[in-house]
C-alpha cells in the first residue's frame, strides 16, 4: 500500500461513526450488510449513513453491490489487510520482542454452493 492510500484509509476511519460502520461491516464479511440493517444496528439517519458510507467507499475500505432494491456494503478485506501490513511493516525494525501480541489475518469466508 502506498502512503497516500494509507492516509486516505486512516482519514476515513478517524471519525467515530465511520469507524463503527466499518467495524460492523467487518463482522459481516464477506457478504456485508444492507443499508437498512446498518442503519438499524447503529441508529443512524439515512442521510448521515449515506454520507459516511460514501467516505468509506471513496477510501477503498468498503465496496457496494446492488441486489434488487437493496444495496449491500461490505468491507474490502484485502485493502484492510494491506493497511494493517503498511502500519506494521517496520515494527521495531523486525525485532521479535515488540511484535504485535496477536497476529490477525482476516480472510473472506468461502461460500460453498
TrEMBL record:
<dbReference type="InterPro" id="IPR051011">
    <property type="entry name" value="Metal_resp_trans_reg"/>
</dbReference>
<dbReference type="GO" id="GO:0003677">
    <property type="term" value="F:DNA binding"/>
</dbReference>
<keyword id="KW-0238">DNA-binding</keyword>
<dbReference type="InterPro" id="IPR036388">
    <property type="entry name" value="WH-like_DNA-bd_sf"/>
</dbReference>
<dbReference type="InterPro" id="IPR036390">
    <property type="entry name" value="WH_DNA-bd_sf"/>
</dbReference>
<dbReference type="InterPro" id="IPR001845">
    <property type="entry name" value="HTH_ArsR_DNA-bd_dom"/>
</dbReference>
<feature type="domain" description="HTH arsR-type">
    <location>
        <begin position="1"/>
        <end position="95"/>
    </location>
</feature>
<dbReference type="Pfam" id="PF12840">
    <property type="entry name" value="HTH_20"/>
</dbReference>
<dbReference type="InterPro" id="IPR011991">
    <property type="entry name" value="ArsR-like_HTH"/>
</dbReference>
<protein>
    <submittedName>
        <fullName>Transcriptional regulator</fullName>
    </submittedName>
</protein>
<keyword id="KW-0804">Transcription</keyword>
<dbReference type="GO" id="GO:0003700">
    <property type="term" value="F:DNA-binding transcription factor activity"/>
</dbReference>
<keyword id="KW-0805">Transcription regulation</keyword>
Amino acid at each position: 500500500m502506498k502512503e497516500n492510500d494509507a492516509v486516505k484509509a486512516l482519514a476515513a476511519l478517524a471519525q467515530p461513526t465511520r469507524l463503527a460502520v466499518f467495524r460492523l461491516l467487518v463482522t459481516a464479511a464477506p457478504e456485508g450488510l444492507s443499508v437498512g440493517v446498518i442503519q438499524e444496528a447503529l441508529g443512524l439517519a439515512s442521510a448521515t449513513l449515506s454520507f459516511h458510507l460514501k467516505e468509506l467507499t471513496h477510501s477503498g475500505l468498503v465496496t457496494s453491490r446492488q441486489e434488487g432494491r437493496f444495496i449491500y456494503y461490505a468491507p474490502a478485506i484485502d485493502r484492510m489487510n494491506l493497511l494493517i501490513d503498511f502500519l506494521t511493516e517496520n515494527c521495531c525494525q523486525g525485532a521479535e520482542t515488540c511484535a504485535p501480541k496477536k497476529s490477525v489475518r482476516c480472510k473472506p469466508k468461502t461460500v460453498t454452493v
